[in-house]
Amino acid sequence: MKTPYPLLFLFLLLPFLAMQRDKPAYKLYNAKGKTVDYDDLLKAAKTSDIIFFGEMHNNPICHWLELELTKDMYAAKKENLVLGAEMFEVDNQLLINEYLSKMIRKKDFEGEAKLWPDYKSNYAPIMDFARENGIKFTATNIPRRFAALVNLKGFEGLDSINAFERGMMAPLPIKYPDTLECYSSIEKSIGDGQPAHQTMNLGKAQAMKDATMAHFIMKGGSYGQKTFLHFNGAYHSDNYQGIIWYVNQAIRKTSFELKILTITSLEQDNIDTISKQDAAKADFIIMIPASMTKTQ
Asked: What integer pLDDT is reported at residue 249 of this predicted model?
């Protein structure tokens, strides 16, 4: 017996209705504002030399996808994968190396390293995966005391730093592209009513962080052979600025032609749409519901 047309139509409609009732945790877009899937991102990542994963620090979807991308990139690259992160300062590199080589215990590493308050929930899974699989992990950020010094006194504040300490930051002097929106917007926002620690040098302090992260990304990779997957706050790589500007300056001084891939993370009420401005922030955009629970 043939199925009546109204009933057949209902059968075809049911999957669509089920999808409409779903509450997806995120949607992925490309720079053209088109919806894509995770496999598209992974395919692009596998052919890239440096990948910047711009996260929202307190968003669990970001941290889950960071871990999943790490696992999938390791499956594809094995020993040719290098990890790095803003969340670890350069003066912690020795402890990281000792932990990854299993020289020291987990509790000793977590007790002695300068870790973010949300380390155990957000970053320990990646660090532990690196430990179990022998993946190199590079601390890329400038020690916070030096960034604070720039915020207080400008780049001149670093003149008093000795040669050993200068090895924990980008070589001085650094260029400061104050016309880049990521820095100029900071300077424009400083004014009355701002916290005392936010000075007119705050943009320079952020630039010093970006320059240092770029320096250790370039130093930590073996380009043409290894892929560097870097985790940072979205601010530091959005609109291909921040760290990426400094990486491109370094690339111009070499004979390398490196492919850079950027990922950013955004929240909004309706994840079924994306503006042209937001789509232009990165090669891939993770759009997450604004109602998503936070990790801190």
From this structure: 95
Q: Is residue 260 part of a domain?
A: yes
In a domain, 262, yes or no: yes
User: What is the spatial distance between Cα 187 and Cα 170, in angstroms, rounded to a whole number?
Assistant: 22
Q: List pLDDT tens digits, range 21-33.
A: 689 999 999 999 9
Selection from 91, 200, 100 nearest residue 150 by Cα: 200
Residue 173 lies in a domain: no
Query: Average pLDDT for residues 228-232, to the nearest whole number?
Result: 98
For residue 92, what are its two tokens? 């912690």
Cβ contact 86:141 at 8 Å: yes
83-119 pLDDT per residue, tens: 999 999 999 999 999 999 999 999 999 999 999 999 9
CATH number (domain holding residue 88) = 3.40.50.11550
Task: Indicate the number of domains in the chain.
Answer: 1
Residues 6+ away with beta carbon under 8 Å from 192: none
Give the relative orientation of helices 202-220 and 144-153 as an angle to the nearest 10 degrees.
140
Match 């995966």 to its residue by tokens.
129
Residue 175 CA to residue 207 CA, distance in Å, equals 9
